[in-house]
Amino acid sequence: MKHAPEWFFVGGGYVSAPGGSHYAGQMYVERYEPDERLHDTPVVMVHGGMQTGTNFTSTVDGRPGWAQDFLAAGYEVYVIDQPERGRSGHRLENNDAVAPQFRYTAERTTDYFTDPAGAKLWPTAERHTEWPGTGRMGDPMFDRFFASQVSQLADRDAIEAGARDGLIALLDQIGPAILVTHSQSGPFGWLVADARPELVKGILAIEPNGPPFKDIQFSGAPDWFGYGEEIARAWGITRLPMTFDPSVKTPEDLRAALDPSLGTDELAPGYMPSSGPHTLPNLAGVPILIVAGEASYHASYDHCTSEFLTWAGVDHDFQRLEDAGLTGNSHMIMMERNSADIAALLMQWLAKRGL
Q: Is 183 an annotated catalytic residue?
């Protein structure tokens, strides 16, 4: 890149608190300019839960991250820290608006992200091969990764609202962009495209938060999958309202129901709307790619998210990495040993879409 990244903040505003005024809701942004810009549309990279933008700037074993991969291909790149996360600023503890915070344990991080083969909680977990190192406490690369984890707001609705508003503010400022979302930030892409379809030129949804409506509970063999009673994403693929046609007045109008036909020995059944049809017209014209890793817990249910988009009339592509010869990946795809090959796959898809 030509020079050090530029940084700035978007969104947020002043709030009153005991003793004076403060700023809240702002989102930190880094802008990277390539040596030679070959593409008109920049890429905005949005990290997932408990993470920050460092996910995209380096891997845990010191290789260039996806930000550098896209820069080398001539894309201008923006990397953000979600509002109330990392460098984006935090509300004061004595402010009534502050929400409780939480973070994952090292054990959960190991079981779900870095060494799922050890826990064997879902059918394909044993196929995990691509994390550099053992993925366990005491291994330098796991320790480096776990040290980068941060706490986040416990209120998931507030997380979605803050990130949606911050990303809208960013696109309103920089113009049309391609969104790269991961995990928790997957719904942000749907919400921003719903609000600003003319500014979202494409979405690379890397294992987007799901499946529709309810969270899966993984229990290992032989039953593998289970669902509780709680609705996690009331609007199917988001917690916050989306624009449906015909309009949906309340989430209950979608009438979520379990569809056993979506399940196989390795795939979970999923909840789908039993009403409708209701389309998502603002997403319908946006090029979308959903990507899932072979050994990730998302391998068990991202087909349900894809099915929801199809039900909603949203044309998109769903890529399982093993079908492209990229095997052994778990959830933190952008940090694993074949991360550059996956970045190349993403850029090939963008090229096919004229992006």
A: yes
**Under 8 Å between Cβ of 318 and 345:** no
Strand partners, 299: none
User: How many other C-beta atoms can be found within 10 angstroms of the C-beta atom of residue 352?
Assistant: 11
Q: Coil, helix or strand for 188?
A: helix
Quick count: other Cβ atoms within 10 Å of Cβ 51?
24
Q: Which residues of the chain have pLDDT under 70?
A: 1-3, 92-100
Q: Is the bond into 64 cis (omega within 30 degrees of 0)?
A: no
Helix (H, G, I), strand (E, B) or coil at 330: coil
Other beta carbons within 10 Å of 286: 22
Q: What is the pLDDT of residues 76-101, one digit of tens each?
A: 999 999 999 999 987 755 454 555 67
DSSP-derived 3-state class of residue 66: helix
Catalytic residue chosen out of the listed positions 88, 148, 183, 274: 183
pTM of the model: 0.96
